[in-house]
Predict the structure.
Amino acid sequence: MIDRKKLFILTIVIIVAGPAMLINSPISYVPMVYVAFLVAVSYIYIFVASGFFHLDVESERMKSCERLSVTDYKINIENRSVLVLPRVSFSIILENEDGHGVRRYEYDFIFNPREKKEINLAMSFPHIGRYRVVVSKIKFCGFIDLLHLKKNTKWNEEVFVTPKLYTIQNYQVNTTNPVFTVNYNVPYKVKGGEFNDVREYIPGDPIKNIHWKLSAHSNEMFTRIINADAVSGITVFIDFSYSEDMDYDRKLNVYDCMAEAAYACGLYSMDNDYGISYIYSMHDSPTYFSASTPEELGDFIYSIPKSAVVEKYSIGFLMAEYLNAVICFDNVIVLTSNVSLATVEILSEYRDRGKYPILFYIKPEDDEGLRDKVRDMLHKSGIRFFSVSNAQEITATLGGLK
């Protein structure tokens, strides 16, 4: 498909050069010379006028801001020449680390000589992560819009968008055996504790608990298991795998929901002296993490993957592997956008042992929701499950659970 500019040029060439070549006389080439002269003058005019064009952006210069917050940008643009700029267009773009534009604000003006304009832009930041606010190439159009020049700009600003904080009010965290001792690999604060056994190391286990001698002899990493009093806590299973038909914005919406819900669970656990741990798949490897301070929790939230196509270590595999493990607390929260019958069956068996699972199906706003068979099985199993679109719905649900 030929664009408008190429089609216009091709049409002019055919109209002007075609008859000239057929007639083949000096006078027949006059229109072609005139068109070439017009194009050259137009480009010279644009080039000279663009040299006097000035653009400057002022902002609050925030290094970081919370998701969904708004920052004001003041855009000052000026034509410092005595020439008229027929048309100037540019964009202010919010793009991620991969260069994908998340927000785009288009501007198009015609400037008179010595004219100044001021634009106040209130930009919102819809997703968590590191972003840049940039000005696109400025497009200067000539007397004919199809003839134009583009000029690069140097201004850009980095913004680190942090999770929006939601508060859980009164989620009751239970423990099946709060009196007796259990085998527990201590990632959280536990008073005392004696070495009892070992198990295979899982990425995220505290380095201080690694059994270095045994690991050296066996050429595999092993972690010490500590005999300690049972600790009430929450284990959050996070599913970062997405279906192939999910577009970019929907993926980020699901990611934001998971990250903010995981953050809220961690802060609530620490405020109430509960244990908190996370199990997920990262770089095609099952990963375990436990935070003991808000700083560690924040670093974890910023480092978790935004998307993944996970086949080997799906959410079903992670739950089947670790729901019965000593590293898993009795209260389990599952955050996923993929719920299968196998997943429900695993959670049902976990609940039958007196545990406390809660399933959150995270769906985009236009999603149809859980399949009928999955929903019916969840109802029969007695598992508490909720379809949500954002972290606020999750924290409100947990805050109301007693």
Remarks:
- The two ends are 62 Å apart (CA to CA).
- Residues 248-271 form the longest helix (24 residues).
